[in-house]
Design goal:
Length: 488
């Protein structure tokens, strides 16, 4: 089995490919796959939070990515309720971030994870409190570390010995000359500028490679992230941090992959990190008071098709809480606070991408079967996941319903390569026509953020819908945007 560095490739874990034949009704919107506030209107048109997709397409052009705001917020609640007030839920902004989203997350009381200066800048500019942000990444620059520390970041999740050394130097520098932002913050609060140690977590590679239906222990050591548990690097990283007065170890962190359906991989990871926590407080009793968080990362899967069966957050939360408290009791240590970092499971399901149908081409395959290629006005520039991971998606006719018989179809983009596929295997009604709108479900995570201007195609608008109204979250790129880097 192959795995992409952040976890399993979707294709590797979804073995059955539409073996079940066409659905009984192509117009049905499976609630497992589509946003929570979706319906069909009187003309059969798709409505998102009461807004007609035809109006959205007319206003924002196509493709347009439509986010059901209430869906997003309700999934934040689902996680917060499932994990309870004793735990911390940090939204992984790499799945999708904009200023608006950062404000929703702040309203909902979640924390935020960033993994670059750019993500951090968006969050801070939106007014998201730095103290609720954690900074990840396997190659943070000195500038990124400095910016994060000056902003008063909640935690830096350290990923290498080099980074520990850089942070230790930064702490020394700050002790010599308290930074401007510390002085400014102190003068705002009317206090004296005191330097708190830099809060850090250690990212541990627990040796678990998680897949949808199984996990393979010890198989995932050979990658760039974290400190190896079995090789002793995690313990050594902790020793180096403990020896540095300017750093404060506040947590241990593990992230085992993405689009995971089976809690078993998380359970093995939790078991191993609690053991490391117990060993750490035995070796460094002075850390026991501050080393209180066990961050189990993100990775909870979502349904891209009706065949997918993800674990609900409350089931996952209970499984993790049980294993962490059992292991902590066995090890004789205080039960740590659990933190999780869902991205996809919060933002993925509530967004759909609406495209306009252009060229339609029927291709006769060996054996006489016909596959209909339905071209849309976007493609791998707004959703690279099918090309990159062989991801599967669900698509439906959105501007109307149709009772025409299902046709074996493939939704393809407008880019100049044959791998430019949005939905590889699907059924669309045989009367599909140029100018129809179609919608692809569950495109909220890792689509816009991995988008490009390939073939100088502009990025689509991202629009939030709520209570019958729409609001632009990110505007569609213009011709000027496409030229903005030119020096002529
Ligand atoms: N925490 C850490 C440290 C991560 O690296 C990630 C994702 C998450 C949390 C959030 O994982 P989620 O809950 O969203 O699965 N581009 C790929 C996914 C890459 C995931 C990278 N890390 C895709 O499109 O499937």
């Amino acid at each position: 089995m192959r795995a992409h560095p952040a976890g399993p490739r979707h294709a590797d874990v979804v073995q059955e490919r539409h073996s079940s034949g066409p659905p009984r009704d192509l117009n049905t919107l499976d609630p497992k796959v589509w946003p929570r506030n979706i319906s069909r209107g009187p003309d059969g048109e798709m409505r998102l939070a009461g807004v007609d997709v035809r109006d959205l397409a007319a206003t924002h052009r196509t493709p347009v990515m439509v986010m059901d705001e209430a869906d997003f917020r309700s999934r934040c609640h689902d996680f917060a309720d499932a994990f309870g007030s004793a735990a911390a839920v940090h939204y992984a902004s790499k799945a999708f971030l904009s200023g608006e989203i950062a404000r929703w997350l702040d309203d909902e009381g979640l924390g935020l994870d960033v993994c670059s200066e750019g993500e951090l800048a968006v969050a801070l500019r939106a007014g998201f409190p730095a103290g609720r942000i954690a900074f990840h990444g396997s190659n943070k620059s000195e500038r990124e570390l400095r910016t994060a520390v000056d902003a008063g970041i909640g935690a830096i999740v350290v990923d290498s010995y080099y980074e520990i050394a850089r942070l230790a130097e930064l702490a020394l520098e700050r002790a010599d000359e308290p930074s401007r932002s510390v002085r400014e913050a102190a003068s705002r609060n009317g206090s004296t500028a005191t330097l708190e140690p830099i809060p850090v977590m250690v990212r541990v590679t627990v040796g678990v490679e998680a897949h949808t239906h199984e996990f393979i222990a010890t198989a995932h050591e050979d990658q760039k992230f974290g400190f190896s548990l079995t090789g002793g690097d995690a313990a050594e990283a902790i020793r180096r941090i403990a020896a540095c007065a300017g750093l404060r170890l506040v947590g241990l962190h593990s992230h085992i992959g993405s689009q995971i359906f089976d809690p078993a991989g998380f359970e093995v990871a939790a078991h191993r990190v609690v053991r490391l926590l117990a060993d750490t407080v035995t070796e460094h009793p002075e850390l026991a008071d501050t080393l209180t968080t066990l961050d189990l990362g993100g990775g909870l899967g979502i349904a891209y098709t009706s065949a997918d069966d993800p674990t609900p957050p409350d089931v996952m939360a209970k499984a993790l809480a049980d294993i962490v408290s059992r292991e902590a009791q066995l090890a004789g240590i205080a039960v740590p606070r659990i933190a999780v970092e869902p991205g996809r499971a919060i933002v993925g399901p509530g967004t759909v991408t609406v495209y306009e149908v252009g060229t339609i081409k029927d291709v006769v395959l060996d054996g006489g079967m016909v596959r209909r290629y339905v071209s849309v006005d976007g493609g791998m520039s707004d959703n690279i996941r099918t090309a990159l991971y062989d991801a599967e998606y669900t698509v439906t006719l959105a501007s109307r319903t149709s009772d025409a018989p299902p046709m074996t179809s493939r939704v393809v983009g407008k880019h100049c390569e044959s791998g430019d596929i949005v939905v590889r295997d699907c059924y669309l009604p045989s009367d599909i026509a140029v100018g129809d709108l179609i919608a692809v479900a569950a495109t909220g995570a890792y689509c816009y953020v991995m988008s490009s201007n390939y073939n100088r195609v502009p990025r689509p608008a991202v629009v939030a819908v709520r209570d019958g109204a729409d609001r632009t979250v990110l505007r569609r790129e213009t011709d000027d945007d496409l030229m903005r880097l030119e020096t002529w």
